[in-house]
Specification:
Blueprint: E1 2-8, H1 15-24, E2 30-35, H2 41-47, E3 51-55, H3 61-74, E4 79-82, H4 94-103, E5 108-112, H5 123-141, E6 153-156, H6 157-162, H7 172-183, E7 187-191, H8 203-219
Parallel strand pairs: 1-2, 1-4, 2-3, 5-7
Antiparallel strand pairs: 4-6, 5-6
Helix pairs in contact: 5-8
The structure holds guanosine-5'-triphosphate and magnesium ion (MG).
The site of magnesium ion has 4 residues, from loops.
């Protein structure tokens, strides 16, 4: 079974379309983790046919993904797919990524919006925010990725059992990269399309990631 995990925080306007798009591509096990939303995210996702897990309070994307990972393991999934609930990803990108992980017997496939020109990434994000994120990820983990902060991933059951996300917010990307390095997981990047309707995580979001990483490094 392939479990599609969709973290969602106040995505009432997008989540119905996202879930339907996944079903249209033939994915049946769609789990939306409603991260303490104050809007219609949970009911809209349920009406669209998804299984919905609810955080009573907003805990952050990392925490939502960990809830989804635990559910996938418990349900016996062979693979979990992380797929954002904001409608920026293309559900057609899942099948090729799954083929890659299966055929090459990898542990994890990471989406990248920077391997080709399919994604029209805003200038500030492409040339400032993401390159800084890439370097920080490298400094903290020793692993060089073309797009270190991409929410699209396909994870094998073996890797799911090893990756435990404790960074509740956006710094979980670096934590997953660190787990790849520590456990020697076999990984590849794959091109995914990311559509921008608005800026999303900007400079403030990037600074929060850095402060989370430094604080956790100091306090652990
Ligand atoms: N921002 C945010 N997103 C959350 C949270 N919990 C779950 N999410 C979901 O995580 C996904 C990614 O959030 P975004 O804020 O778009 O972050 P991003 O996609 O990494 O950044 P952009 O490329 O700028 O869009 C979305 O589906 C959100 O609904 C949370 O507490 N904060
Ligand atoms: Mg987004």
């Amino acid at each position: 079974m392939v479990c599609i995990i969709v973290p969602a925080y106040n995505e009432g306007e997008n989540i119905g379309r996202v879930v339907r798009g996944l079903f249209e591509q033939g994915w049946r096990d769609v789990v939306v983790v409603d991260d303490g939303s104050t809007d219609s995210t949970a009911t809209t996702a349920r009406e669209a046919g998804a299984t919905v897990l609810v955080h009573a309070l907003n805990r952050g994307q990392g925490a939502a993904l960990q809830t989804g990972n635990e559910y996938a393991l418990q349900e016996g999934a062979s693979y979990a797919v992380h797929f954002d609930g904001d409608g920026q990803f293309n559900p057609r990108d899942i099948a090729p990524a799954l083929r890659l992980i299966e055929q090459e017997n990898l542990d994890i496939v990471l989406g990248s919006r920077l391997l080709d020109n399919r994604s029209r990434v805003p200038w500030l994000k492409r040339y400032v925010i993401l390159p800084i994120g890439r370097w920080i990820n490298f400094v903290f983990t020793g692993l060089w990725l073309s797009d270190a902060h991409n929410g699209f991933r396909v994870i094998s059951r073996r890797a799911l059992a090893k990756i435990v996300i404790t960074e509740d917010h956006m710094a979980h990307n670096t934590e997953i990269t660190a787990a790849i390095k520590t456990h020697g997981l076999r990984f590849k990047e794959v091109s995914v399309e990311v559509t921008y309707h608005e800026m999303g995580q900007g400079i403030a979001g990037g600074l929060k990631i850095i402060s989370d990483l430094v604080m956790h490094k100091l306090t652990r």
